[in-house]
Automatic annotation (TrEMBL):
SUPFAM superfamilies: Rhodanese/Cell cycle control phosphatase (SSF52821). Gene3D superfamilies: Rhodanese-like domain. This is Rhodanese domain-containing protein. It comes from Ditylum brightwellii. Residues 87-182 form the Rhodanese domain.
């Protein structure tokens, strides 16, 4: 969705006022005598809140996403920031996305936003495809105590890769989600 300048101002107001009205909506849903209304309000308050808008003067697209919408196991942006800072140049990013659209069609959207690692592009990243059939991936030839952040497009296979690496003896692994998790991606996506 793209909005004009006037609509952008309205959207910004809505986003800024949202934290004040969410508790009221949640409270109303808890005491509503109508179960359907209660379900609708609850779903509305917990659904992904994404507002995408483009300013007439700025061609950047902004996506506002509530942090509670991250997939299970995806680390918080603050945790990733601290992890990246502590790891410094020892950090390894493990990208488990599959460029083959016939195998993982969903990865095509994230590949358009964030390329696979190669050469100067994302120099601290390894590309190790997560195989759903074997429920595994190649084990990286790096020390077991290397700080690692796994990711896919949004965090599902990133979590599987994290669990897999930990089962294979790696001791310092976080799931960074992926390009869909813009706040998380900002902490390590360029590495």
């Amino acid at each position: 969705f793209f909005f004009s300048g006037r609509e952008t101002k309205r959207m910004v107001r809505v986003v800024l006022l949202l934290p004040f009205f969410l508790p009221l909506l949640i409270c109303c849903s808890a005491f509503s005598p109508n179960p359907m209304l209660s379900r609708v309000i609850t779903r509305a308050t917990t659904a992904t809140t994404t507002a995408v808008f483009r300013s007439r003067h700025n061609t950047n697209v902004f996506a506002l996403r509530m942090s509670s919408e991250r997939k299970a196991g995806v680390s918080a942006p603050e945790e990733l920031r601290d992890f990246v800072k502590a790891a410094a140049n020892k950090l390894v990013i493990v990208d488990v996305r599959n460029p083959d659209a016939s195998v993982e069609p969903g990865d095509q959207k994230s590949l358009a936003v964030a390329p696979l690692p190669s050469g100067d592009i994302r120099p601290q990243a390894l590309h190790l495809i997560w195989d759903r059939e074997s429920n595994g991936m190649p084990i990286p030839d790096i020390p077991k105590d290397t700080p690692i952040i796994t990711h896919c497009g949004g965090g599902g296979r990133g979590q599987k890769a994290k669990d897999f690496l930990e089962k294979n003896g790696f001791t310092s692994v976080l799931n960074g989600g992926g390009p869909k998790e813009t706040e998380c991606w900002a902490e390590f996506g360029e590495k």
